[in-house]
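Bench log, entry 3. Co-assembly request; chain sequences pasted below exactly as received.
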Amino acid sequence: MRILRPLVGAVLAVGLVAGCGGSSDEAEVDPSASARGLSGTLTVFAAASLTDVFTGLGNQLMADNPDLDVRFNFAGSSALATQLTQGAPVDVFASANQAQMTVVTDAGLEDGDPTVFTENVLEIAVPADNPGDVTGLADFADPDLTLAICAAAVPCGAAAVQVFEAAGITAAPDTEEEDVRAALTKVQLGEVDAALVYASDVQSAGSGVMGIDLPEADAAVNEYPVCVLADAPNPAAARAFVDLVLSDAGREALAAAGFRAPSS
Amino acid sequence: MIPAALGVAFLVLPLVGLVIRAPWSAIGPALAEPEIGQALRLSLVSATLATLVSIVLGVPIAWVLARSQARGRSLLRALVTVPLVLPPVVGGVALFLVLGRQGIVGSWLDEAFGITIPFTSTAVVIAETFVAMPFLVISVEGALRAADARFEDVAATLGADRWTTFRRVTLPMVAPGIAAGAVLCWARALGEFGATITFAGNFPGTTQTMPLAVYLALQRDPEAAIVLSLVLLAVSLATLLLLRDRWLGRAGVGVGS
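Structure output for the full assembly:
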């Protein structure tokens, strides 16, 4: 008992604080929130590349609806699709490719057809001073340059294979990275002369990395579909979030992060 | 006994899970694939080289830690064990900062000799050594502390110089400790993933070790990844058991108790 007593005290104290917080929140009911009627928790599963954009959009939705709590789970699309098929209670799923969305729709988990809301294409990333004087995709055949691509088993690597095939180039990479971020890190550290990554990754890397546009990239366009899930605990908020992603504001946020508008 | 049984179950059940899930018929074809053979060979060779380097550099470190009376000893011990707590991926980035072509030492190597280390098999050995050597140092230091230092003093009074004392008295006393440390070090090097894929990259034949092959297989085909893991596991267990028999035989004669 002597050990338990302080614990009980602590629990009570936390409970009291939480209780106070809750009641004060309820006191400040925002008129716009009741107008929209969005409250509770919205759970969004989204591809890791969407972290910055979706966090911003989520904050916007929460600012408009003070009673709404938006929670994100950002991870690789395949991991998210697995969690969804295992029964995770989720409102919205945004995948970085059609393949993982198909995993979810094949399991019949979606409510309405998924919508493609943005696209991502490959770009060449070089260190800001471009030590290898890389100008285009043809430089990836140069054995004297130190080059990184993604391994064919991961999405950015599969896209790289398609782009090289379409351009008829036999790449001479020095490393096949386990994911796109690892390839980008090696550019940021200046350890490779160039890497093939997504345009959004170049944008997020800041001033240490320079992007070189790739006309050949259209051979492998990554479409990002989003859908509301059939068992969504909060369907109203789920639709509001998807609408926000598809709105002009959503498009602008995506464009600023290096994504491009869907072509279809 | 019950805690021991629980502990064993905790350690062994995940392994049982792998064995049960394994598509056994796929193991033969997997072994026949040239990429897997390459990865396995590279893993075994690089882990062994990393262990040898660790012995050559690590035993002297352990000796300094156990025997020297110098002041900065605890600080030195803390520094040496940093790779144990450092996330291996961070270790890989740290290796870039020193040995990469922009690194403190690496840029000089590049300019003076035209040597670049990252993305080579040498980089694999370096990454594995960085992560695995502390295991050897800690084991050997423990063995040195347990060994009676008076034998060394006696050897010295009988006229043996430091090197002779170390070679003829200290080393035989702590041989089982070095062996145990080397096994730990080898096992850690064999399973090394984070520092290797960061510093050495991943390229079949030059830097793709088994753990890297397993990770990438997991992205595409989980069953293939299980097969590869079991191959790595079987080879490492077989190696350790073989070595253990040899060492136990020798240690039994040497220690005599």
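Residues 4-27 of chain A form the longest helix (24 residues). Chain A touches chain B at residues 78, 146, 148, 151, 153-154, 173-178, 182, 185-186, 189-191 (CB under 8 Å).
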